[in-house]
Known about the structure:
Distance between the termini: 51 Å
Shape: rod-shaped
Low-confidence stretches: none
CATH topology of the largest domain: Alpha-Beta Plaits
Number of domains: 2
Number of helices: 13
Structural class: alpha+beta
Mean pLDDT: 82
CATH class of the largest domain: Alpha Beta
Amino acid sequence: MDYNKNLFIRISKLTCKFEDKKLEQEYQDFRWDKIRNYVRNLMIISEIFNMLIRADDIRLLGPNPWYIGYHVLGFIAWLLFLFYLSDNLKKKWHQIYFTIWIIGFMNMGSFSYYLIDPLAFPVKGGVLPIIMILWFYVWPYFFLNSMIVTISTTIPFCMLVLEQGSMTSDQIPYLYLIPFIFLSTVKWSKEKGDRIDFVKTKKLEANHKLMNNTLQRYFGQTLTEKILKDDGVLAGENSRATISFTDISSYSTIIEHMSPETAVKFLNEYFTGMHDIIEKYNGYIVSYIGDSVMVAYGAPKKVEDHELLAVKSAIGMRDKLKEMNDNWDKTEFSRYWKNNGIDEIKARTGIHTGSVIAGNIGSERMLQYSTIGDVVNVAARLEQVNKELDSSILISQEIYTTLTKDLHSLCDFKKEINLKGRDTLTKVYSL
C-alpha cells in the first residue's frame, strides 16, 4: 500500500476496523506480531485459573455431567488451539476463539448455578465492573468483539445475582450500564488511536524509505548511510584511496547529430552499464561530468586492495563497453557514430592512488561530496595521456606495484612522462 497517497484513512464507527480490507489485513498482521506471545502466555495462565474455578464449581454444584462435559470439550479445544494450530491459523482465528470460549465459559457457569443452586454462587454483584474490565482490556479483542462478549456474559451474570439477591434492579445502571458505556467509549478511542498510530508509523516508514531510495539514487548506498547517520555532516578526512577517470573517446563527434533526448538516452545507457561494473568492485561514483565519470575506491567506504579493485573495474568496464557495442549494432543505434567514421565506442581510463581529502565541499547552502588532492589531478591527466599513447587504460607506478602477478603480465611500460603540477617524472603503464 502506498501510504503517501492514502492520506485519509476511514475507520468504521461500528467495528472500529479499517474500511480498506488490505490495510485491515496489514494491521492484523502487525498486531499479531506484537501479541502472539502475549496470547500464548495469557491462555496458559488463564487455563490454570479456570481449572481452579471449575474445581470450586464442581465442589459447590456437585458432579453435574453437563457442566463437566462442556469444560472437557473446552479443554480439548484449548489444547488444539494452543499446540496444534499453525501460527497463521492462530492469527486468523484467535479473536473468534476467545469470543466463543469466554461466552461459553461464563454462560455455562452462570446458568449452571441459576438452574441448580443460585444461592451457592460465590461471586457477588460488585465484581461485575471487574469482569467487564477483564473482557475489554486483558483479552486481546477488537472493539466489536469486546462489546459482544461483555453484553452476552454480563446479562446472565446479572440474572444470577438478581436471583441470588446480591444486587437489586436499581443497581444495574450503576454496576453495569454506566461502566459499560464508559469502558466502551474508552475502548473505542484506544482502538482508534492504536490504528491511527499504526498508519502514522507506516507513513513515516514510507517517507523514510522514499527519502532513502531518493538519496541512494543521487549519492549511492554508502554515502547515503553516512548522510543519515551523521545528519548530513561529512567532514573532510584524509583517506588512502584510488581514483579513476573514464572518458568516452571522440564524444563530441559521436553526439554531433543526436537530438538532446537521444544524447541523454545514450549517456544513461552507457553510465548504467558502467555503474554495474563499478558497483561490483566497490567503487563510489564521485561525479559525472559530461561523458566523464570520476570514481573513488576506498572512499567514502574503506576497502582493502582498492588499487586492485580499481584496475579490475577498469578492465570490466572495457569488456562491458564491447558488449554494449554489440547490442548497439543490433539495434542500429550505432549509425550515429558509424556514419561519422567511428567503428565503435571506446573509452579511456586513468588510475592513480595515494592520499586524498574526502568529504563535503561547497557552501553551507549547497554541498557536494568529493575528493581532492594530487591523486585526483594525476588520475585525470593520465586519462588524457591515453590520447597521446593510443591506449585505453593508463596506470601510475604506484598502482603497478600493488598489482597481482596475473595483472602484471598484462601491463606494458609506456614511458616516463612529465605531468603538469608534478616535479618528478611519472612512470605509466598501459593495460
